[in-house]
Amino acid sequence: MAATATRLLLLGAVMVFEPVNGYQIRRELLSWRVDEWAHVNPGSIYSGLATLTRMGHLDRHDLVDGGREVAVYTSTAQGRDAFAGLWRAAAETVDLLSPLDFHTALSLLGLVDRDEALDAFTARLAALDAEVGRQADIYPEPERIPPNVHAMADLWVGLAATEREWLVTLLGRLRAGELDLRGDEMSWAPAADDPGVQMVADRSRYLEIIRGG
Q1: What are the C-alpha distances in Å from 56 to residues 2, 52, 59, 118, 177?
Q2: How far apart are CA 99 and CA 88, in angstroms?
Q3: What is the pLDDT along the chain (213 residues), one digit of tens a residue?
């Protein structure tokens, strides 16, 4: 997984659930199937959390919870600023051959407010149109390139066109107030047996321990 996407994913996951321990982050991210679409090695989640802590983007709190030692993480102001910059760049930057950063930004859409999301995706729409024009300029005379190369260029343009159609729909949904973004009243709740329900209870307990220390 690319370094930018890794930092974005781990920072965002901590911000969603903080205070949160490493095992909870690992379990939650695997429930998002990040091992498939983001190619995350589950073991690398722990090392990534440690790296972000050394960078000053996360704080690690070593707690004793019910007689058990546990390390939990919270985001720092520096980490939240880093997330905002990484998210905006990932949302706006078009890379048809490597969309991982964008997909990571989408998975964390709930951490940004509606105006920010609209601005970023509007900018992405303009970048997509520019990319389609750039591809046309690269291969202005199809008869001068091998057919297989032309077919590949057609695929790139088709991917851009498909994403453009999807993005226009997404912008319409955001303008209509759909989806749960930062500051919105949540319209979705996990099932009673979802691990996230227990994470909420753990979060409250961790907060009490941290504040009491």
Answers
A1: 20, 6, 7, 30, 35
A2: 14
A3: 468 899 999 999 999 999 999 999 999 998 888 888 888 887 889 999 999 999 999 999 999 988 899 999 999 999 999 999 999 999 999 998 889 999 999 999 999 999 999 999 999 999 998 887 776 666 656 667 787 877 877 888 888 889 999 999 999 999 999 999 999 998 888 888 887 778 888 899 999 999 886
